[in-house]
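Workshop exercise sheet. Pairs work together: one partner reads the sequence aloud, the other fills in the structure field after running the prediction. Swap roles for the next sheet.
Pair: D.N. / O.F.
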Amino acid sequence: MLCPFCGTYGGSEDVICPACGKLLPRGENRDSGVMAIRQGRRAREEAQSSETPVWQKRQGTDRVWVDPDTRPTSGGQIPVYPDADIFEADGTPVTDSAEIERSLRREAYDDSGESQELYDEGGDAMIRRRRSHPMRKHGVNWMIVLVIAGVLFLGAAGGAIYWVTSTPAGQAEQVRRGRDVDNAEVYWQVGEELMNTGDLEGAIAKFTRAKEIEENSADGRVNIDGLMMLATCYLRTDRTDMAEELYVHIYTDLNPTSEEAYRREIELMRENGREAEAANLMLTAYQKTGSSTFSRQRKQMLPSEPVTTLTAAVFKEKRTLTLTSPEDYPIYYVMNDSEVPVFDEGYVLNPAWIKYENGIFLDEGTWNIRAVCVNGSLCSDEFAAIYKINLPQPHQPNIGLAPGKYKKASVALWPNAEDKDEQITIYYTVDGSIPDADSPIYDGTKVKLKARKITIKVLAVNSYGKASPLLERNFEITGEKDPPMGYATNNPKDIATIRLNSTTYEAFSESFGPGSNGEDVTLGNLGECRRYQYSWGYATFKQVGSARYIVELYHTTNEIDAPRSTKIGMTEQEITSKFRDMGQVESPSGNRGLYSNGDGIGKIFKQEDGTKIIRYIAFTADGHYWQLDYTLGRDGTVSSIYHLYIP
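Structure field:
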């Protein structure tokens, strides 16, 4: 076929011109007749069918461009032109490289089919033409196509399964369709979507499921923001208690520094009138988060704390603490009790807190004061201060007689010289007791020592009521006699006809009768007892097991024998002469100590109505007491005698 573009002959099956590379006309467009003759088609066909083709010389060169396979073959057939070579006009191949290069000035291809540069006679490069290989037609292998399609289908299906089960987007889609997945974040996401669209019940269900997954998770992660959204849904659906419970759980168990949880809980408390609880939670929130917002809010709500002008310090004198409320609210305080709360459960004021009136007196000692201003169920922050009152202590007083034996003796007492600038009062005793405010006061008159063996004890007390160390001196006065022994339970003379806590009701009744008008009475530590009346007084018995023992006896006549032959109608001196009396003078109150030792005590008490009671206490071997009282009327004589057992 002759190329209409460059005039080069090609094979009958060629689609593209081997010289210029352009598409050759084929099929229905194939020309016949004169056009075919002009194109050399018929001559070519005839040549292909009979004899050796006539080799045409290429225009402009003495070489002919012929593919090697177009040369005559034994079969006489003309093959397709697969590769190109350079031949002489008679068909002899050109092997000289220079000749080949010159012949390829317009078009040339290397062994691999790539086009080479063409040069004109002047050596300049000419336009390159690319040779196109002939197209080859192949059949379709449908098995391979099916295998590839199956592989692609399986890959797509696996990818879809992976997307649904393993990616957040796929899992979220499953949750939206009502399926369960083990991914809390997906439930939080879908729950938030439902909350934003107004489906609060659906959001609560998703949030609750997310919370359950996190609680059962081993990593311990918790979505605080998600829990806050759940609480919001609770509030919007009027489940305030559940929302509050969730807020408390967040700032108590999960995140103590969660400001938002504290803030919302405080808002709920204030909306419900729980101002005191809100104030307490504000303090906790400030301490845990450090946010000054809570501190300022709390300060605006609460009363101001009490104020005072007495700064906490150590004082050497007694003081009075005054407190004031800036807003004139009532003030309550406690002393030396750092644990008691202001309010009990239900915000009821604790009774241990004392209402402040006109000052708090601070005596000697250490005083830990806590005070608050109270407005309903709200109380201010505490005013707290520690005051120490250390009063100066006087020095030990002086005594004008050295210890020893004397036939007769009296002693003088005076304050220590180092206490000359202080107002000192000297208290002393000779009955064996420790001096106190009910002891005799030394007035400058020497103290007479009236017993054979006697001890004088002296204390100096300053104007603050602070006592000096005790001064104690022992003397033996040979010119005096020893007084009688004190009242004692082991002295037969003190038992008379009865013995306390030993004589039974039956034995007593044999001597004095059963008594009348029996009544139940309560006697201090003795508890429930039974009392019977008699013409001379009454007797009281305590039930112990199956027996009743006498524990109290009162008589106004001499039908009952009293200890040491004492009787109704005796005078004070007659009674005291029967028992031990160390000769101590009366105290300013009119009381007088008789004796005090390891066996018991004797003392006279002056009553406000002018009567007196001479009281003796005896210590029993088992640690109990017997009390014996003689009551002296205004006439100075005994009007009644009283016995009491003290367990």
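Discussion prompt: The chain has a mean pLDDT of 83. What would you look at next?
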